[in-house]
Design goal:
This protein is an alpha+beta fold. The chain has helices spanning 4-7, 15-22, 65-71, 108-121, 170-179, 194-200, 207-210, 238-244, 281-294, 323-337, 351-358, 381-385, 435-453, 469-474, 478-488, and strands at 76-77, 101-104, 125-128, 144-147, 154-156, 161-165, 182-183, 217-223, 229-233, 254-261, 263-264, 269-276, 299-306, 312-320, 341-349, 367-374, 394-400, 422-429. Among the domains are: 4-24 and 266-468, 3-Layer(aba) Sandwich (Vanillyl-alcohol Oxidase, Chain A, domain 3), CATH 3.40.462.20; 154-265, Uridine Diphospho-n-acetylenolpyruvylglucosamine Reductase, domain 3. Helix 5 packs antiparallel against helix 11 and helix 9 packs across helix 10.
Length: 503
C-alpha cells in the first residue's frame, strides 16, 4: 500500500498526477485579473491567444514605450530585456507569443498609467496574476501585459476580513490565513494567483462546506477602462461587485486587491484517497454521482476517470471533521459501487497541512483542457468513462458542487451554476507539437459529455473551441453581465474574442 502522502507529495508528482488526485478544483483556472479570450469559431483550440485592438472614439496614438517606462514605478520590459520572459504562460503546449511589453506594476497608479496608454494607443492589454490561464490569455501577442505579481500582500484583520493583493499566490494566502486561525475556500495549486480564481468563481476542496471563493468577496479595488480606481462592493458600484463574483477575468478592468470574508479554520480535516480496480470506472462513476448528491456539505470528494486500457477510477477529497465519520461514508460508498478497492488511505491533519497536502507540482507543463457542468445526472456513466478508453494521456475529472454553493440563488452573483451537481474537466497531456491533435480529441469529448449532462461550462476552464461559450459560461446571467461590461468599458478597451464586451 502506498501512503497517501507519497501519492501526492508536491516534490514528487507531476501536474497530471496532482489533477488525478485532487481534481481540477478551480486551481488551474484562468489565473489572470484580466485578459482571457480566444477564437470562437474554430474546431480546435488555437495554439496562440488572439487579441483584437480595442475600438475607440478617438484616433490611436502610437505607443510611446520610453514615456511609459519613465512614468511607471515598476520596470517595463520589452522583448529581449530582463523580466520579459518571466511573464510566459504556465502551459508549455502553447505557441510562444510576443507581447509588446511587460509592465511589472507596483501599485494602482502604475495600473492606471498602463490602461491610459492602452486606451489612447488602441493596443490590447491583459493582466497577469498567476499565469495559469489554460489558453495563455494573460500573455497575448502584441499586448501590454500588466504583471501583478508585486501586488501580493496578505493581511488578516481582527474582524476576519482578509485584504489580499491581486498578485498573491494561494500558498501565501493559506499560510497567512492559517497564522490567524482563518481559512478561505479556494483552489489548491500553490502558484495559482488569487485574482483569476476568484473572478471566475473559485472551486476547491472546501467549496461544499464554505462556498465559492467569489461568495466571500466583500469588495474589490479595480481600475476600469476610464482609468478610475473604484472600490466595488455591495455599497458602491454594486452591479460591478455582482459581476466580479463569477463573471470571469478580463471583462471589467484590472483588479488590484480584494477584501474577503473568511471562516474559522477547521481544527481537523480528514483527507482520503481511494483507488478502484481497473475496469470498474463506469460503476464507480455511477455510484459517485448519487453518493455525493446525498452527502453532507462537510464532505468534498471528486471522481477521476483515468484514461487507459481499460480506464481506472479513483475518489479523493476531504471531510471537515473526524476520520471515523469519513471512514464510515467511504465504506458505504465502496459497497455501493460493487467494485474492488485497490487502495485506500485516510489521514487527519489541520487546515494548513491539508492545503499543502493537496498542493500539486508548481513546475510548468503542457496540456489542453475543456469543461462541462453536470446540470443533470448521468444516465449512462459508462459511455462517458468510455471516452478515455485507450487514451492514457486523457482524464475526466468530476469535481462536486452542491452544499453551500447551492444555497445561493443563481441571480445573487454572476456564477450561474448553483443547482449543478458538479463540473467535469476533460484534461489531456500534450506539448506544442501535438497540441492540435490533443485539442481535437478534447473537443470531441466535451461535446459528447454535453449531450448527456447539459451544456453549461466553467469559465475558469476557458476553452477557445467552445462554440456555445457565452451561454455555457454565464447562463441566465449573460445579458446582465454584458450590460455591466458595456457600462464600465464603453469603448472596448478590454474587448477580446471571448469577452463580454460587445462591439
Amino acid at each position: 500500500m502506498t501512503a497517501f502522502s507519497e501519492v501526492i507529495r508536491v516534490s514528487a508528482v507531476d501536474r497530471r498526477n496532482f489533477l488525478r488526485t485532487a481534481g481540477g478544483l478551480g486551481a488551474f483556472a484562468l489565473l489572470t485579473a484580466c485578459g482571457d479570450g480566444g477564437p470562437t469559431n474554430t474546431t480546435t483550440p488555437a495554439a496562440t491567444p488572439t487579441t483584437t485592438a480595442p475600438p475607440s472614439t478617438t484616433t490611436a496614438v502610437p505607443p510611446d514605450w520610453d514615456t511609459l517606462k519613465s512614468r511607471l514605478k515598476g520596470p517595463l520590459a520589452r522583448p529581449g530585456q530582463p523580466g520579459y520572459d518571466a511573464a510566459r504562460p504556465f502551459n508549455t503546449a502553447l505557441t510562444k507569443t510576443s507581447p509588446a511589453a511587460v509592465a511589472q506594476v507596483r501599485g494602482v497608479e502604475d495600473v492606471q498609467t498602463c490602461i491610459d496608454m492602452a486606451r489612447r494607443s488602441h493596443i490590447p492589454i491583459a493582466a497577469r496574476s498567476g499565469g495559469h490561464s489554460y489558453a495563455g490569455y494573460s500573455c497575448p501577442d502584441r499586448a501590454l501585459v500588466v504583471d501583478l505579481r508585486s501586488l501580493s500582500s496578505v493581511e488578516v484583520r481582527d474582524d476576519g476580513i482578509a485584504e489580499i493583493g491581486a498578485g498573491a499566490r494561494l500558498a501565501d494566502v493559506y499560510s497567512a490565513l492559517a497564522a490567524k486561525g482563518r481559512c478561505l475556500p479556494a483552489g489548491t495549486c500553490p502558484t495559482v494567483g488569487i485574482a483569476g480564481l476568484a473572478l471566475g468563481g473559485g472551486l476547491g476542496v472546501l467549496t461544499r462546506k464554505f462556498g465559492l471563493t467569489a461568495d466571500h468577496l466583500v469588495s474589490a479595488r479595480i481600475v476600469t477602462a476610464d482609468g478610475v480606481a473604484r472600490t466595488a462592493s455591495a455599497d458602491g458600484d454594486a452591479d460591478l461587485h455582482w459581476a466580479l463574483r463569477g463573471g470571469g477575468g478580463g471583462n471589467f478592468g484590472i483588479v488590484t486587491s480584494f477584501e474577503f470574508s473568511t471562516e474559522a479554520a477547521p481544527a481537523q480535516l480528514t483527507v482520503f484517497h481511494v483507488e478502484f480496480a481497473a475496469g470498474s470506472a463506469a460503476e464507480v462513476l455511477g455510484a459517485w454521482q448519487d453518493w455525493i448528491a446525498e452527502a453532507p456539505a462537510e464532505l468534498w470528494a471528486n471522481c477521476v476517470v483515468e484514461g487507459g486500457s481499460p480506464p481506472k477510477a479513483r475518489v479523493s477529497g476531504c471531510y471537515v471533521g473526524a476520520s471515523a465519520r469519513a471512514n464510515t461514508m467511504l465504506t458505504q460508498f465502496a459497497r455501493r459501487t460493487g467494485a474492488r478497492v485497490a487502495d485506500r488511505n485516510v489521514r487527519t491533519m489541520n487546515y494548513l497541512a491539508a492545503m499543502r497536502h493537496f498542493a500539486g507540482s508548481s513546475g510548468r507543463t503542457g496540456f489542453v483542457a475543456s469543461s462541462r457542468v453536470l446540470e443533470k445526472r448521468m444516465n449512462e456513466p459508462g459511455t462517458l468513462a468510455a471516452l478515455v478508453n485507450d487514451r492514457p494521456d486523457m482524464d475526466l475529472l468530476f469535481d462536486p458542487l452542491g452544499g453551500a454553493v447551492s444555497t445561493v440563488d443563481a441571480r445573487e452573483t454572476a456564477f450561474p451554476h448553483r443547482a449543478a451537481l458538479a463540473t467535469v474537466q476533460v484534461y489531456a497531456d500534450t506539448e506544442a507539437g501535438q497540441h492540435r491533435s490533443a485539442a481535437s480529441q478534447v473537443d470531441r469529448a466535451q461535446r459528447d459529455i454535453a449531450e448527456q449532462v447539459g451544456r453549461g461550462a466553467y469559465v475558469n476552464y476557458i476553452d477557445p473551441a467552445q462554440r456555445d461559450w457565452p451561454q455555457a459560461y454565464y447562463g441566465n446571467n449573460l445579458n446582465r453581465l454584458r450590460q455591466v461590461a458595456n457600462l464600465y468599458d464603453p469603448d472596448g478597451v478590454f474587448a477580446f474574442a471571448q469577452g463580454l464586451r460587445t462591439r
